[in-house]
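hiii so um. not sure if this is the right channel but i have a protein structure encoded as tokens and i wanna go backwards to a sequence. like what aa goes where. can anyone help
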């Protein structure tokens, strides 16, 4: 597909290849959170995803959830970035995950009443909103000794619930494109990691996971 290699390249180098693609969120090198990220990557490398999502001994749960939330944002950013040219106003006039699930956007501040919009618009709103949360030092403190706010867990749950919708849309509406690009192994591994993580800490309500319930059960049974 013409232009795709350029897309993937700019994705990796961190420039904006399209309006829906957001810059990578970096965790500062040398910080404790960076060490946690490296630990997560090393455990992931062993291939045991159930073990990889567990809270490392002696670590703070909020910090562990923060590091992984940033990582999932970056992963979804890249996965969606590879298929933006197939996710258009024309191909996806509503944000859906199959015929039974449609999402309307509201963030509670700029857009209080849920609005119906196309998938690329919805995902742009969603990723911009997540980015704003991750960049907010009062919500996601990157400095050592700065405490997490009391509402951190509910913010993290909302972020993860919304990020799940991007996976759901990709699987339902764009899996054929993912297959053509030979990205399905990457997508499946990322999603499996995400699901094991949210299950480990009970971060997303089961009803929210319904659009991909069969896939989730399949991934879980393969792992037993």
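sure thing!! here u go:
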């Amino acid at each position: 597909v013409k232009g795709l290699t350029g897309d993937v390249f700019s994705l990796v180098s961190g420039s904006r290849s399209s309006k829906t693609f957001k810059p990578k969120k970096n965790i500062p090198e040398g910080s404790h959170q960076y060490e946690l990220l490296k630990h997560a990557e090393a455990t992931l490398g062993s291939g045991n995803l159930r073990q990889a999502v567990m809270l490392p001994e002696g670590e703070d749960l909020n910090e562990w959830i923060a590091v992984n939330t940033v990582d999932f944002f970056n992963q979804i950013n890249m996965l969606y970035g590879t298929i933006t040219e197939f996710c258009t106003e024309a191909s996806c006039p509503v944000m859906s995950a199959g015929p039974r699930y449609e999402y309307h956007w509201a963030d509670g501040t700029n857009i209080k009443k849920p609005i119906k919009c196309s998938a690329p618009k919805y995902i742009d709103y969603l990723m911009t909103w997540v980015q704003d949360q991750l960049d907010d030092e009062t919500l996601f403190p990157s400095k050592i000794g700065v405490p997490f706010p009391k509402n951190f867990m509910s913010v993290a749950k909302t972020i993860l619930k919304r990020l799940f919708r991007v996976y759901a849309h990709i699987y339902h509406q764009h899996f054929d494109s993912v297959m053509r690009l030979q990205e399905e192994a990457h997508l499946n591994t990322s999603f499996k990691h995400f699901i094991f993580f949210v299950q480990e800490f009970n971060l997303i309500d089961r009803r929210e996971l319904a659009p991909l319930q069969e896939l989730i059960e399949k991934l879980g049974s393969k792992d037993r």
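oh and The radius of gyration is 17 Å.
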